[in-house]
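Incident log, structure service

09:12 report received: a user says their structure output differs between two submissions of the same chain.
09:20 pulled the input from the user's history:
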Amino acid sequence: KNVQEELRHKVNISPLSKQPRYIAAADAAFIDDKIIAAVCVYKYQGLEYLEHEIVVRKITFPYIPGYLTFREGPAIVEAIKKLKTIPDVIIFDGQGIAHPKGLGIASHIGVLLDMPTIGCAKSRLTGTFKEPGQRKGQWSRLMRNGKTIGAVLRTRDNVRPVFVSAGHKIDLKTSVDIIVHCTGDYRIPLPQRCADMIAKSVKKDLGKRV
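09:34 re-ran on a clean worker, output below:
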């Protein structure tokens, strides 16, 4: 809690200075006492796949709601540091500032690495909202204590929205624009879908060896 409180004050919500060239996404899966972290990198223009990295390590922190980064973060940071291509923005399967402490995994790791980050979660952790329109790109504000903490974004027509929030060194509008740009035929942005599939594939392979 003290670490979150300290890092929360270092979060910087501001527009990107230029359009990203490379976009990455990170996700994790679990099997037995191990965590599998995967990070995928794409070119922003054309969404061309470039590379991915995987880290498998022992879990060292229990599952406690609100403290996801302490469980997943070390493996994800290790995978990011292995990348040959330095991404301009990293998307996380989790929250940015749309977090009870204002420091979800995207904000937490963004501050630690001093990199622009976005939280793109499949479900809400905190806040209230009105349902957005049904067309791709339509969104409504995720509110908490009278402040906008994120966006409830429709990434495909007539599908469940995702919950987007700025992580670090980026603002909400840019975060929404990037997520919309990165979603094609699926609900989840392409780099995030890649990281999810790779982590699950490694989990399946590890399961076969047991």
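09:41 both user submissions now match this output. Likely a transient worker issue. Closing.
09:42 reviewer note: The mean pLDDT is 95. DSSP finds five helices and eight strands in the chain.
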